[in-house]
Specification:
Number of strands: 0
Largest sheet: none
Helix content: 40-55%
Number of helices: 12
Order of helices and strands: HHHHHHHHHHHH
Shape: elongated
Structural class: mainly alpha
Length: 283
């Protein structure tokens, strides 16, 4: 026999010949022994015609089944199921996802909001709107209440609030010079349109405020008058105060000797003692 060339692979053994002990197996023999039968999923008769709901299960991988031979699932792979056992039409009906109905969006024509004319400063308009909204009356009713000085419709706080938002002369002229329809004006401007129809609206509101405050003012004045009368009586009856005034009169005449204010029979100064002390300090 011809000896093999150096580096050439050994020839395959003869069929049926025993393998040489310790020799590596021929190519392909090891893989065939390990692979065994391939596993495939059970055959499904048909595919659903609609989109189905999903079943929440954990799918076993084929490699996991190969590691445990003789298991339950391996037998299903080799035994096809009779398609007549399962009514796939009924299964599809039960587990199909509901079809979403296409809702036709009707285009609704958006109503254009009317645009109002603003003549006043935005901050000014905001202050006017806050006070008038709290009155919970129409502009016409507010004007009627001011015209009639109705103290049942407007209380003291509401009258004070209206006095704070009375229009300036320039604002009144601006409203009167507006040439368009009044209903096209903004809220604050429409209030002024109604308000300036009331004669002497500012004076009426001031009189209403005075009528609300009259009682508290008179009570305060009464207390002051009583205190003043009581103090006068105490002065007339106080001998110590008379002696003090006598001393002050003498001291004043002494200081004013030779002047127009000297040689006085009496004196009056609301802050006489306070005026005398700085003279002493300036010594």
């Amino acid at each position: 026999p011809v000896p093999p060339c150096p580096g050439a692979p050994p020839p395959p053994p003869c069929p049926g010949a025993p393998a040489v002990p310790g020799a590596p197996p021929a190519p392909g023999m090891f893989a065939a022994q390990k692979v065994g039968k391939s596993l495939v999923p059970p055959v499904v008769a048909r595919k659903p015609s609609r989109k189905m709901r999903l079943l929440a299960w954990e799918k076993i991988k084929p490699n996991d089944l190969k590691r445990s031979s003789g298991n339950l699932w391996e037998s299903y792979s080799s035994s096809p199921l009779d398609s007549k056992i399962i009514d796939f039409d009924e299964v599809e009906e039960l587990f199909a996802q509901p079809e979403k109905k296409k809702v036709e969006k009707k285009e609704v024509a958006k109503k254009k909001e009317p645009t109002f004319v603003s003549l006043l400063d935005p901050k000014r308009s905001l202050a006017i709107n806050l006070i008038t909204k709290n009155l919970r009356m129409s502009y016409k009713d507010i004007s009627i209440a001011i015209r009639s000085c109705d103290r049942e419709k407007l209380n003291g706080d509401q009258v004070s609030g209206l006095l704070n938002i009375l229009p300036e002369t320039t604002e009144v002229e601006m409203i009167r010079n507006f040439g368009g329809p009044p209903e096209t004006l903004a809220e604050a401007e429409r209030f002024y349109v109604s308000l300036i129809t009331v004669p002497e609206y500012a004076l009426r509101l001031k009189c209403m405020k005075f009528s609300f405050e009259f009682k508290s003012i008179t009570e305060d004045l009464e207390k002051r008058v009583d205190n003043l009368l009581s103090a006068g009586i105490k002065i007339l009856e106080s001998e110590d105060l008379k002696e003090l005034l006598h001393i002050l009169l003498v001291v004043g005449n002494f200081i004013n000797t030779g002047g127009y204010a000297g040689n006085a029979m009496g004196m009056f100064h609301s802050q006489f003692i306070g005026h005398l002390y700085p003279l002493y300090q300036g010594k």
